[in-house]
Amino acid sequence: MAAATKRQSRTQRKARGGARGGFETLKSEEIFTEAKDLMPGGVSSPVRAFKSVGGNPVVFDRVKGAYAWDVDGNQYVDYVGTWGPAIIGHADDKVLKALSTQMEKGTSFGAPCALENELAKMVIDAVPSVEMVRFTNSGTEACMGMLRLVRAFTKRDVVVKFEGCYHGHGDAFLVQAGSGVATLGLPDSPGVPKGATTSTLCAEYNNLESVEELLKNNEVAAVILEPVVGNSGFIPPTKEFLVGLRELTTKYGALLVFDEVMTGFRIAYGGAQEHFGVTPDVTTMGKVIGGGLPVGAYGGRKDIMEMVAPAGPMYQAGTLSGNPLAMTAGIETLKRLKEPGSYEYLDKITGKLINGILDAAKEHGHQVCGGHISGMFGFFFCEGPVTCFADATKSDTEKFAKWHRMMLQKGIYLAPSQYEAGFTSLAHTEEDIDRTIAAAKEVFAAL
């Protein structure tokens, strides 16, 4: 047996041994204890702190394929995937090779590079609504630029978002937001001036009447939504809801914006708009298009995008936007996703995973509902169905927290919040799915 194979076998034995009672996180505890004196809450992003599931987080040391290893050597099957970008698997060899080649040329230019053109053409070819694109450094930044753009183009200030939908931490969006805001139980955020949110109105997801009421009584610049909610847990739309939004926004002169930071290139190569056959006016993107490196983008019809400086008067800029490393990782990731069978495989393994978890819950008398689209999934500890954020809040978060910790101890790493979607990758195998379902059965039996 080769040395590398022996090392891998020892790692796997340790991980599975931890599931039987040898799970230790002493180094993680030490590092996190120190981190709490160095960073607010010990983290650089709130959900990582495990506040809603109890206990302290494990501290990652490395990732590869479908797996993560913490600093104590525990191995996990990872269903967070850095919150979505790792769709072809962590640290993919082809991506790493391309990044290594690019690093020899430089890590940042602050000037135009050909890689921007290449990734831009791939995005434009793939996403139905996008005729021009502007790259940014994060999904939040993309959404902030998008918000300024829709207001500039329509000459209107009011925007409509949906309860539980998260569009980054920009002031105007922190109104009944999901993600970490929902996880921590914060209705809004201190430090956001009243004036920043007076032009943000909230509707109920999957409820067209609530949207039309707002459109009738306000001059609305745009209706903005996650076409599949991932920041209140996994909540799919009805096709009628998306079609209705397209019709209503056209009727009232507002723009329709899909925030596809999470769903873009995740549930289909052309995103949710390809999957559902509904084309918005503007789209925001991130995560997958950076292949694991920091990136975001917003794009849309050419007449709208030409409002953006320097083509037009709407100003937005970024020193690291279009960074050559992020462009390289994005290009290589999209090349892999475009290969035949990619999304069929994601749908197959994710369907098996979520159905196995739901069946295991039912077998042991627990009320759990959920679903998936391609490589995105989620479940709630309630009877369901869950069609909006109000439904999601009925979930038994205490039971979920116990379940989460018990799964973690068995080597299964899931999003540490009931209000976050989960993700699979092309690197996940049938064996990984079987192992996860087996762990779920054991945990549900003991819960």
TrEMBL record:
GO terms for molecular function: glutamate-1-semialdehyde 2,1-aminomutase activity; pyridoxal phosphate binding; transaminase activity. Residues 7-17 have a biased composition (Basic residues). GO terms for biological process: porphyrin-containing compound biosynthetic process. The keyword Methyltransferase does not apply. Residues 1-20 are annotated as: Disordered. Keywords: Aminotransferase, Isomerase, Porphyrin biosynthesis, Pyridoxal phosphate, Transferase. Transmembrane segments: none annotated. Its cofactor is pyridoxal 5'-phosphate. Pathway: Porphyrin-containing compound metabolism; protoporphyrin-IX biosynthesis; 5-aminolevulinate from L-glutamyl-tRNA(Glu): step 2/2. It comes from the Eukaryota. Its EC number is 5.4.3.8. It catalyses: (S)-4-amino-5-oxopentanoate = 5-aminolevulinate. It holds the Pfam family Aminotran_3. Belongs to the class-III pyridoxal-phosphate-dependent aminotransferase family. HemL subfamily. Homodimer. This is glutamate-1-semialdehyde 2,1-aminomutase. It comes from Cladocopium goreaui. The lineage of its organism: Eukaryota, Sar, Alveolata, Dinophyceae, Suessiales.
